[in-house]
Structures are given as C-alpha cells and as structure tokens.
Give the backbone structure.
Amino acid sequence: MKKIAIYPGSFDPITNGHLSIIQRASGIFDEIIIAVARNSQKKGALFTLDERLEQLDMLSEKIKTNTALRAMSFDGLLIDFAKTQNACAIVRGVRNAHDAAYEQQMIHMNRHLSGIETVLLFTTPELSFVSSSLVKEVAKYGGDVSAFIPEEILPVFLDRIAEAS
Ligand code: PNS
C-alpha cells in the first residue's frame, strides 16, 4: 500500500527549512501532501492561501525525488484531513527541544484522536534557527534573509514585507 504522509503548516512564507524537511521526508514516503492550514490565513498573513499553494507547487517541482509531492489546503482538524487522504503519518520539522516539547502535545492528541503517527525530523543544524516569523521580523528591519528564503520567492517576499511595513 502506498505510504502517504501529510506535511502541514502555515508556510507564510515557505523557508529553506521547509524545503529541506520535504526533501528529507521524501526519502521515507511514497507521497507527501504539503498541507496549508486555512486557519493560518489570518489577518497579517503575508501571502494568501492560493499564493502559498502556487509557491509550494512551483518549489516542489525543484525537489529531486521520485516521491509524489502535492500542495493542498485543509480546514478543521488535521487528522480529519489526513484520514480523507488515506495518510499513514504526519511529518513535522523541529529545530530544538522547545519545538519538540510543543509538538509532543499535538502528537499525543492526534494519535489519541486518530491513531495516526507523527514523524518528527530535526532540521539540519545550519537551518536550526530559521522560522517564518523570525525571517519576517529580520526582513522588516532590513536584515539579509536571502539564505533562508527560496530565491524564487525572495523578491515577492521582500515586496510584501515592504508593503506591510
Ligand atoms: O506551521 P505551523 O503554524 O506550526 O503549523 C501548525 C499546524 C497548522 C500544523 C497546526 O496548527 C494544525 O494542525 N492545525 C489544524 C487544526 C488542528 O488539527 N488542531 C489540533 C492539533 S492537535
């Protein structure tokens, strides 16, 4: 049976940390659904849901893998979406023990509700301090974030930061 995993998140913006996790998880699963949470389209979001889905589709094509990658959005509980997609696992990237502790709560809840396991991947050390929110803050004050945002979306990312400031 095909091993399908869900990689959920806000992806506002997509960072090289996210792409690295997708690349590494693709060695484990036959298919990965990159799932953008609709509720992450809150006020203050840099990109709309459709923009994030388009960006993820475009960037997925650059990932060298035989694993099928596709971007979808979901509403409501993650495990309900995972069930509709026949997923056997959720993938999450963690940078440190603090992230892992936060994920632990969700992992237990999701498994309690559905039996679906979560695979936690620690980000590579060089990306272990990167988060979408930190990158947004640094960019807002003119810091160089080009090492952390995919080059394809860097110009539009910087435009949006300037518009929002
Ligand atoms: O990139 P983020 O913001 O850390 O992603 C968080 C996300 C979207 C994975 C999480 O908020 C989520 O799963 N939301 C869907 C609602 C849900 O299932 N909540 C219960 C989790 S136990």
Observations:
- The chain is about 40% helix and 20% strand.
- The helical segments are 16-25, 49-60, 78-84, 97-114, 132-140, 154-164.
- The pocket of 4'-phosphopantetheine is lined by residues 8-10, 37, 40, 77-78, 106, 109-110 (CB under 6 Å).
